[in-house]
Amino acid sequence: MSRLLTRGGRPWGLRWRSSVNYLTFVVSLGIGADTLIYSLPVAVIPFQLAEWGYMDLSSRTGWLLFAFASGICIGTPLAAWLSERYKTRRLPMLAAIVALIGSIIMFMLAPNYVLLVVARVLQGVSSAVIWTVGVALICDAVPPNRVGQQMGTALIGLSLGSVAGPPIGGALYAKYGFYAPFYFGVALAMLDLVTRFLAIEPQDARKWVNHLSQLPTGNDSEEKSPDASGPVIPVPESDASGETVTDEVGSQRPILEMLRHRLTWVGAFNMLAYGMVGPSLNATLPLRLWDVFGFNSTIVGLIYIAIVVPTCFSGILSGRLADKFGSKWVAILCFAAAIPWSGLLIIPNLPLDIICLAWQSFFLNGCVSPVMRDFFTVAIEIKGVGFAHVYAIFNMSYAIGTPNMYDHLSHGWLAVCIFWIACTVSGVLVTFIFSDQTEKGAA
Asked: Which residues form the signal peptide (predicted)?
């Protein structure tokens, strides 16, 4: 049914539905939709909570971010295990979108703060699957020498979702009320569901193709695409019934080896440092703009556009550089370049703040593609470790970083800026000291 079969049983649109570009588009759209739906209420939540009569708005907003992160931590291990155990990406992704739609509706209709938290946890579980399984799908389809570039392309969805969410949410909230942003989110999730329904996984597409060279083969067991260099990526064997044999993948030994790999911990720490900045910005910036400049949700949303638009390009650029030169120095450069902009944010000047936030976001977003490439390297170097396993570590590391200090300290904004500087400096030091250039072996 899902394959829209034509005569002879061959899926309609096999080539484009299983192509690297389409699969990257699907993953990018999923990440973008998830991020947009996550960020739709960012410019709305503090104002809505104030309207409901709640106090400690930054703290309550921060707890909603923590609830989302908790959902990611709950859903990520399960998503990785199911995806690698049964060697399927499509079904978990479809289930995640359905759960995401349910979480949107629950959040929209929640009559109190407690149910807002529950809905945010459910959205975090959905997001865990969308990210972990989606990124693993790209790795299944892409040769090792293109991983950084394709990851950077997929991350355009992250930037666009971050750009579009706050202004759309703020404008719809101001014009039509609290429900309007969530109607938009449900519509976008339905579009994402359709594109995922059409996607054909590489392992399924190869059943209909005579020559492996006709399809992307980033995860073939014994053959690779002609332009792919580096280690061969193993695929578990299948028995006569077609069920995947996962003795090695399901065993504990490969997972322990993954946890002992240096790049696993470097990548996990860097995503933790990156995650410490992003969530705290989302929890703090709307209130900072409200407290200092008196801006409402609509203007806050528009300011987010100026901040996040540059990040649409940094992921692709850093991904290509990582493919060519290795991840270490690209990550160091991006972390280091973000440091001065965090320091300048201490000065309370709106034009300067917007410029600083834009450059800070540009360089921090550029850190993600090299980190993703490091995790890819771990997966291809350790036999029995699947892509979903390593990107589960990636996802959980990002989710842990949800600090909230703005309204708990007398000089909250100063503390936030210093905290951001500390995070980026630590990213530079850890990458310089503990990383190496072994990832270039996959380039």
From this structure: none
Closest to 431 measured CA to CA, from 350, 353, 359, 366: 366
What domains does the chain contain, in order, with CATH numbers? Answer: 15-199+246-442 (1.20.1250.20)
Q: Do 145 and 442 contact (CB within 8 A), yes or no?
A: yes
Q: Which one-letter amino acid corresponds to residue 271?
A: M
Determine the number of helices (DSSP H) and then strands (DSSP E) in the chain.
20, 0
- Label residue 204 exposed, middle or buried (CB < 10 Å: 0-12, 13-18, 19+): middle
The single-letter DSSP state of residue 441 is G
How many other β-carbons are positioned within 10 Å of the β-carbon of residue 227? 8
Asked if residues 349 and 288 have their Cβ atoms less than 8 Å apart, the reply is no
Could you report the per-residue pLDDT of 347-358, keeping only the tens digit for each?
Answer: 888 888 889 988
pLDDT for the residue numbered 1:
44
Report whether 140 contacts 19 (CB < 8 A).
no
Q: What is the biggest distance separating any 2 CA atoms in the chain, rounded to whole angstroms?
A: 71
Give strand pairing partners of 238: 244
DSSP 123-149: HHHHHHHHHHHHHHHHHHHS-GGGHHH
What is the gyration radius of the CA atoms in the chain, in angstroms? 21
Do residues 283 and 118 touch, judged by C-beta distance below 8 A?
no
Burial of 211 per CB tally in 10 Å (0-12, 13-18, 19+): exposed
Q: Per the structure block, which two tokens stand in for 201?
A: 């996984």
Residue listed under structure tokens 């692709």: 316
Q: What is the model's pLDDT at position 237?
A: 39
Q: Are 199 and 15 in contact (CB under 8 A)?
A: no
Please answer whether residues 99 and 126 qualify as being in contact, where contact means their C-beta atoms are separated by less than 8 angstroms: yes
How far apart CA 280 and CA 42 sit, in angstroms, is 12
The whole-number pLDDT of residue 233 equals: 35
- What are the residues whose beta carbons fall under 8 Å from the beta carbon of 428, sequence distance 6 or more? 332, 335, 336, 339
Answer left, alpha or beta for residue 160, where phi above 0 means left and psi between -120 and 50 means alpha: alpha
